[in-house]
Amino acid sequence: MISLLFLFSEENIKSHIYFLANDYLEGRLCGYNQIARDYIKFYLKKLGYEIITQEFDVDGKIKIDSFYLSLNIPAKPLYFSSSGYAKFNEISIVDGDSFDEIGLIHKAIDERNKKKKAIIFLLSKPIQKSYFKNDLNIIALQVPKEYKDSLKNKKIEIFLKISKEKVKGENIFAIKKGKSLKYVIIGAHYDHLGYGDISSLDSIYDVHNGADDNASGVAGVLELANYYKDKQVSDNIVFAFWDCEEIGTVGSDYYIKNPLFPLENTKIYINFDMIGRLKDSTLTIIGSKTAIELEDILKRNNQFFNLKLVNSGFGSSDQNAFYNSKIPVLHFFTGVHKDYHKTTDDANFINYEGIKEILEYVIRVVDDILRTETLTYNEIKQERSFTSSNRVRLGVIPDYSYEGVGIRIIGVSKNTPAEKVGLKEGDIILKIGEYDIKNIYDLTYALTKFKKGQKVKIEFKRDDKIITENIKF
User: Fold this and answer.
1) What is the DSSP letter of 213?
2) Measuring CA to CA, how many Å separate 239 from each of 29, 227, 263, 308, 352?
């Protein structure tokens, strides 16, 4: 077989990643990443493509509109805080160093459920995050631990008014038109974590450049667009660049609800997320059995890689939205590493030759898919599901883009309590046992309170009807 390696320029790939992962772009935070958007559009236009965009509203960073604390000590609202007023015995003071991040959130929910209106965490290291989709209906502050004595036996009052900046997410598309009415969509998300405003695993507040996550995937899609620009293709190829993946695949979920190309004519979605750290020739591909034909296609076109094939298409990247819509998917991935979601995910650590090798392989796979008349969707019987870190699982996939009260479901895993009780896509979970479910953190909190074999009532909304069922974990 003739090598295609010469068709991809390592310099092109490197220039994309070094630009997108530059400090000047300030971490490409969802809603604050206009320079990255402009770069993607500029390159696609340079290739001769017409640009299609799709905007959607998202909540941005927290703004402190008004803040009063009756003590003269340094204090700062935490990113999951609510607005409100609290005084004296309505306030809990807690040593926050004994909790991890989700533990802080669950402790705040604990105190809220005890009718407290505010919680002050004493922390040795400040938490810098400023971006949060849901608040917890309790004022949450952080105070440096050395001020512990200043809080003793004091009549404390707190007033806090915060708001969320309203920003726009933007999906970007270019299409190579084919002869059929079918669509092959190839995509990657271009947003990252800003200064660590969301999901950072670092203890410092600084630019998170996201060279691997996911400038590497964006570079891959841009260069595939470059490769196909002058080719004749049987099916339409859509090159998609998703925004707001890091806050829960919001951009791709929005597209599924508002498709620009018919979902019923979408042959496959191919995703790139973190393809920049190829090591020992090991390439993970998620979704290898989401169509009956895919595993054979992947294997017969592989010349180089040690493939780790994952049958299901379920996962925490943009292929998930398509998979939940019963569209075959493939997700290419070179693995998590020590710089994941840290300030050290920089362009100098990328394996550029590895990206070229992956793209060469992908070309063979895509061309094979284009020659295949139909891909037969295959439902995977056993797959991972959303679950808490404790012993029980519910078995639902939440819709992270949902803005209302409760948890809307976009998928239910097989042979789980959720399936057995009859939950299905579109249902909105409102209550489990005694715990109200207003957002994702209420759900994770509630699941820590139950044990295997325990039966509780679950309340959910289907269309305009409230349904209550007994569920067994």
Assistant:
1) I
2) 21, 12, 15, 25, 21
Backbone angles phi, psi at 118, to 5 degrees: -150, 155
Is 378 inside a domain boundary?
no
Beta strands in 145-296 (DSSP E): 157-176, 183-189, 236-242, 266-272, 282-286
Residues 6+ apart with CB under 8 A from 156: 69, 70, 71, 87, 88, 91, 120
Q: Which domain holds residue 122?
A: 71-155
- 211 and 353 co-located in one domain: yes
Q: What is the CATH number of the domain that holds 394?
A: 2.30.42.10
Residue 346 lies in a domain: yes
Ramachandran angles phi, psi of 294, nearest 5°: -70, -45
- Burial grade of 104 (CB within 10 A; 0-12, 13-18, 19 or more): buried
Looking at the structure, tell me whether residues 81 and 228 fall in a common domain.
no
More confidently predicted of 65 and 400: 65
What ranges make up the beta strands (E) of 250-379? Answer: 266-272, 282-286, 306-310, 329-333
Same domain, 332 and 403: no
Whether 428 maps to a domain, the answer reads: yes
pLDDT in tens, 298-330: 999 998 899 999 998 888 899 999 998 999 999
With a cut of 50, say whether residue 432 has pLDDT above it: yes
pLDDT at 253: 93
**pLDDT digits over 108-137, tens only?**
999 999 999 999 999 998 888 887 767 789
Structure tokens at 204: 């410092």
| Residues linked to residue 459 through DSSP beta bridges, in sequence order | 431, 468
